[in-house]
Amino acid sequence: MNNLLKGKRGVIFGALDKQSIAWKVAEHCVAQGATITLTNAPAALRFGQLSELGKQLNAEVIPADATSVEDMENLFEKSMEILGGKLDFVLHSIGMSVNIRKGREYTNLNYEWMKKTYDVSAISFHKMMQVLYKMDAMNEFGSILALSYMAAQRVFPDYSEMAESKSLLESYARSFGYHFGTHKKVRVNTISQSPTVTTAGSGVTGFDLFFEYSDKMSPLGNASADACAQYCAMMFSDFTKMVTMQNLYHDGGFSSMGMNPAVFDIVVKKEDG
Ligand SMILES: NC(=O)c1ccc[n+]([C@@H]2O[C@H](COP(=O)([O-])OP(=O)(O)OC[C@H]3O[C@@H](n4cnc5c(N)ncnc54)[C@H](O)[C@@H]3O)[C@@H](O)[C@H]2O)c1
C-alpha cells in the first residue's frame, strides 16, 4: 500500500458483483487510504452483492438511480455528511443497453429503448456532474472519472447503440471538464478500458471471441479489471493533478494497433475447428 489516496473522500457508482470494475476500484481506493460511499440503482441493490462489499470496506451503501437528479442530490448530500466534507473523487461506472438486452439489431432499433440507454449510460454522467457542480460538492483538484470503450471511435458492430452512448459520455467529459476546470479547478476524464468479463461486458453478443480477438491484438493483452482499478486510483491521486478533459486508453496497446500476426492464431483455430 502506498497511501496514494490518504485522507481523500470518494463516491463510487456501479459495483454490482465481484466482477464489476467498480468493485475492484472500490477495493483499491480503500486500500490506498480513501474513505468512500458506494451506490447503485435500487433494483441492483436488491439483486447484487453490494452490501457485502460495503461491510468489507466499511463503506455506507446509498441507493441512487443515476437517471434521477433527486436521487443524486440525496446521494452527494449524504455522502458529504458521512465522509465529513467535500468529495475528492467520483467514479461513474454505469452502462446498460435496452436494445442489446432485448436482442434488437442495430438496423432495427427501438427509439424509446435507445433514449433509455442514453439516459442510463451517458446522460447520467452529465446529471451527476451537474449535481456535483451546483452543490459545489467537489474539492479543488478533485477528480471525476467515467469508464468508456473504444467503440466510441471505431466500429464494433455488436456494441450497437452503446457506441453512441460512449461517444456522448466522452464528449460530456470534455465539455463539462471545461466548466469544472475553469470554475472549480476540478478535472474530468474518461478511461477507455479493454473488454472485461463482467455482467455488462458479457451482455454483448459474441463477447468471448471479441475478448480473445482484443487480447491477441493487444501487445500487452487485455487490461484486467484490477489493472483498470489501479489506473483509476492513480487518476484520483495527486500524481495526475493536471490531467483533464482526456479520453485515456487503458487497453494493453489495442488502440494503436493496425494488425497483429497473433490474431491469425484465432482465425486458423476457427478454420481448423
Ligand atoms: N466490461 C467491459 O468489457 C467494459 C469495457 C469497457 C468499458 N466498460 C464500462 O465499464 C462500466 C462498468 O461496467 P462493468 O463492465 O463493470 O459491468 P457491471 O454490469 O458490473 O456494471 C454496470 C453497472 O451499471 C449499473 N447501473 C445500471 N443502470 C443503472 C442506473 N439506472 N443507475 C445506477 N446504476 C446503474 C448496474 O447496476 C451495474 O452495477 C460501464 O460503463 C461499461 O460500459 C466495460
Structure notes:
This protein is an alpha/beta fold and 273 residues long. It has one domain (9-205, 222-257): Rossmann fold. Helices cover 48% and strands 16% of the residues. The protein has helices at residues 21-31, 42-47, 50-57, 69-83, 98-101, 111-135, 162-184, 199-202, 207-217, 225-236, 262-272, and strands at residues 9-13, 35-40, 60-63, 87-92, 138-148, 187-193, 247-250. A seven-stranded parallel sheet has the order 3-2-1-4-5-6-7, with helices on both faces. Helix 1 crosses helix 10, helix 4 (69-83) runs parallel beside helix 6 (111-135) and helix 6 (111-135) runs parallel beside helix 7. The N and C termini lie far apart (46 Å). It binds nicotinamide-adenine-dinucleotide.
